[in-house]
Design goal:
Shape: elongated
Organism: Acinetobacter bouvetii
Oligomer: single chain
Low-confidence stretches: 1-11
Number of helices: 12
Radius of gyration: 53 Å
CATH superfamily of the largest domain: GAF domain
Structural class: alpha+beta
Number of strands: 23
Main location: other
Subcellular location: Cell envelope
Protein name: Putative efflux pump membrane fusion protein
Keywords: Coiled coil, Membrane, Transmembrane, Transmembrane helix
Strand order of the largest sheet: 10-19-22-21-20-23
């Protein structure tokens, strides 16, 4: 394991540790392999060629009293360090090539302290830079206009760089905004509020900025450094820095990292600020260009596919004709409906049917009390017998006057008896047809009196049915007799049935808070096994339209009414 292995190992190391290893190598300390656990912010790294069990055995020998352990292994030496940090215990291991001296261990121990110090210094510098960025952000956000905010940002950033990066004491920052067609426009410069657009420096700055826009990466040239600022994948602005220091081939990483972080923090704010200052027309033009750019530029495939599908959908719902429909709730009724009324006054003694029961013709539905009628019938029968006896006596005596009177009395009594007998028959109220009881529930009212003509039951015939639709008043003008439609019943949600409008009743009624009209329709084909009172939804075809109008018709009519009522 020599320098080649060391090179492979250090490539994967964090930059500060790799720099530390290179410094050890310059001091003739050959580190073959490195291992560390919970070391600063670098995390954990395992030995490459040394087993974990071997490293664990060395860690067990480390303690607070003995934080260093060295032992030979294969052709080299394993060195373990125990480091005490504030938040966690840290271990550091080195696999060293011989020779090893006491001075070597002291150099390694001292250099580890140097590494720790360098790391802490770097973190403090990063924290200081972050604090300064937030201060600059506060300066910028308190300005009143976009250009003033940009000028304040550039000036504050330049001042900070000159104070913290003393080697760039003459640095100048320039901010360019990219216009359509990749045209760069100068906005502000540090220490300047105005500059000649035709000056040599300005032309050179524009050239550098345009080069950064075209190449879409940062530019390093003698005296110049440029950084393109992206927004949604497009270069939106360019930051150009000028200083003699850039002519030298020294490392400018610290400065460029700070400037990039600075730009990444400030540019979104400046972008929103500039958009907010745009007029309505300018904002509309910018939005339109951005929108059209998604179709004319490369990429944006998802947007183009979705737009294509949406266009096809809109064409379909506007150009393809469909049936214009009027939708309403409906219920099924028998084509013939009988209302059964009380033929006379009386008391209910027995109820034999309820709504929903199927009945036959002449089937008894309800019985009324016939006690009084039977008493009256017995009295009239007795009077009839007396009249007949008087008639026989008068005939035997050949008394024409008495026989005539007896004959008239007999006829009167027979008429009364026939009337009472008819009433007795009517106490058993029967169904006049085969059908279904759809209204009238008297089971809980046995023994209560009823008056002559009181509605007792409604019976619908079973041989034929009709459809009753409740069409809203806003749609009734579209419905005409003879129009066809389809319906679905709640009891048969998977089946569709055809019907034809036969009658429109010009009398409005309110159902379910909807004012509408009664429309009758006949079944086109043989209906299923129906029961009067079934409910569903019907759709009447009243013409042709497109899907867009069919979906929005109710809203359009509502808007027309509201606009008219308002104006």
């Amino acid at each position: 394991m020599t320098d080649n292995n060391m090179q492979e190992q250090t490539i994967k190391m964090p930059e500060p540790i790799q720099h530390w290893l290179n410094n050890l190598k310059q001091l003739n300390i050959n580190v073959i392999d490195v291992c560390f656990e919970n070391f600063l912010s670098f995390g954990t790294h395992q030995f490459k060629d040394i087993s974990q069990e071997k490293w664990n055995s060395i860690k067990t020998l480390l303690s607070q009293e003995k934080p260093i352990h060295l032992q030979s292994w294969n052709s080299g030496y394993l060195l373990g360090y125990r480091l005490n940090q504030q938040d966690a215990l840290s271990c550091f291991g080195l696999y060293l090539a011989p020779p090893i001296h006491e001075a070597t261990l002291e150099i390694i121990r001292t250099s580890l302290g140097w590494l720790f110090y360098q790391h802490q210094t770097q973190q403090l510098q990063q924290a200081w830079n972050s604090e300064q960025l937030l201060e600059i952000f506060a300066y910028v956000i308190n300005q009143s206009e976009f250009r003033i905010a940009a000028q304040e940002w550039i000036n504050q950033t330049t001042t900070y760089i000159r104070n913290q990066f003393s080697e760039y004491e003459n640095i100048q920052l320039n901010y360019f905004y990219v216009q359509p067609a990749d045209h760069v426009e100068w906005l502000v410069s540090s220490d300047l509020s105005w500059t000649e657009k035709g000056s040599a420096d300005m032309q050179k700055m524009k050239e550098i900025a345009l080069q950064a826009v075209m190449l879409q990466h940062e530019i390093h040239e003698p005296f110049w450094w440029a950084y393109p600022i992206f927004n949604h994948g497009v270069v939106q602005a360019v930051l150009v820095a000028k200083d003699r220091k850039f002519e030298q081939k020294s490392d400018h990483t610290a400065l460029t990292i700070y400037l990039k972080n600075n730009v990444d923090l400030m540019q979104p704010l400046l972008t929103l600020w500039k958009k907010a200052e745009q007029g309505l027309v300018q904002h509309s033009i910018h939005t339109g260009r951005h929108f059209l750019g998604k179709y004319t530029q490369q990429g944006h495939y998802a947007w183009k596919i979705v737009s294509l599908l949406l266009g096809i959908f809109l064409i379909g719902i506007t150009l393809i004709p469909v049936d214009k429909l009027v939708t309403s709730n409906l219920n099924v009724e028998g084509k013939t409906r009988w209302i059964i009324a009380a033929p006379m006054q009386g008391f209910i003694t027995q109820v034999l049917v309820r709504p929903g029961d199927k009945v036959k013709a002449n089937q008894t539905l309800i019985k009324l009390d016939d006690t009084d009628l039977k008493i009256q019938l017995a009295e009239q029968q007795s009077l009839l017998d007396q009249a007949q006896h008087q008639f026989r006596v008068a005939m035997a005596e050949q008394n024409l006057t008495d026989s005539g009177l007896a004959t008239n009395q007999i006829r009167q009594q027979e008429a009364k008896i026939q009337t009472i007998q008819r009433k007795l028959i009517q106490t058993n109220i029967v169904s006049p047809l085969h059908g279904t009881v759809i209204d009238g529930d008297w089971v809980q009212q046995t023994g209560t009196p009823i008056e002559t003509g009181k509605e007792l039951f409604q019976i619908a015939s079973q041989d034929a049915y009709k459809v009753i639709l409740h069409v809203a008043d806003q749609d009734i003008h579209l419905v005409k007799t003879g129009q066809n439609g389809v319906l679905k019943l709640t009891s048969f949600p998977d089946q569709t049935f055809k019907f034809k409008v036969t009658r429109i009743t010009p009398v409005a009624a309110v159902q379910n808070n909807i004012n509408g009209f009664r429309v009758e329709a006949a079944w086109q084909n043989s209906p299923p096994a129906l029961t009067p009172g079934m409910q569903g939804v019907g759709k009447i075809t009243v013409g042709k339209t497109n899907l867009l109008f069919r979906w929005s018709r109710d809203f359009i009519n509502w808007m027309k009414l509201k606009i008219w009522s308002t104006w």
